[in-house]
């Protein structure tokens, strides 16, 4: 197995055992980037020289005193909303041309302290305001969308062009591309990972989290980036899980939604996810039918919060340089200016009611299991989806529909691969739990993953 094919856990173990040096690993991943980047378009910028210098420094440090932890010497990338001192943060937008960060974001600072090696910055849908990331191609089929907004981050991990990455998630922007590219994506509990130095889309819905090849990898990254930061007013002092409990799932109750999550879902997606849920039962979990509360209001609340908050963030630049925004993003930002204060406050009130209702739902279950997205990656340029009940839905509305509840309520949500459709495209299952029970979704995901074959391997790209 070539070094770029290793999961984070495997690479860390090899580095710790002195079987693989950080320089060898980083060189392998950089070579992989060179081989696939022209076809995939995952990266905004690749800092190869700086990465090799950091890898050499990590190698010297590990030789002298051993690794600081599991991320020491591991090559990774950051979504280009996340500041790194001295590097551009473009948000994949012409609006940010010439912008260079003057200090590290808190998560970049923590990854640096852990000894991770920065490869570069990955593409986002402009300012994270979209679910396709049009600059980037799907790692399994380049005629298909990558998903968004963390499309570059997901594709880099899926293609072996990064051992792990960080993305952001406001309505599914980690989980959607992770599901569409067959990797693991974790949206942590709201407030668990600080967003200081991260370009905002919607401050009350934004999260930062890892995209990795395995669930264990995601847990390792979460442990490094979580923790209180007084510069982020939403940050909380809750500790990140430092280990995932092992064993089967006996005694654990898994909620299976009766409504919302299996409404208007492609048959192959439903079949794979229901099969994965049955596998959880075989592993010892008790399946419990649950009703998703306030399901009819989810989309209205998501948009009622996100759209005006995004417009408020972009107010000055939208007035100064409106033509520099892509048309799809500009129209959303302009629409936000039409949202009344009353509508925004009603959305906030509904969010509070929804959080309370979800807390009561979790009184009877430990984890909720459902599809991550209703369908696999669509063809590039496709705008709408037609369902068998006659409903027509935009692609973005389709992809956000099953992810938005976890952002509105702030609960942790993990997506992991559970199969492929007849076209060979990945299908993802989403696991959610009550706030700050991130370890629970990681435990369930890891037990499922370890019961299947082939977890953690990159997409089969020919080079």
Automatic annotation (TrEMBL):
Annotated ranges, domain Amidase: 24-442
Domain of life where this protein originates: Bacteria
Database matches in InterPro entries: Amidase, Amidase_CS, Amidase_dom, AS_sf
Coiled-coil parts of chain: none
Name this polypeptide is given: Amidase
Organism whose genome encodes this protein: Actinomadura keratinilytica
Taxon lineage: Bacteria, Bacillati, Actinomycetota, Actinomycetes, Streptosporangiales
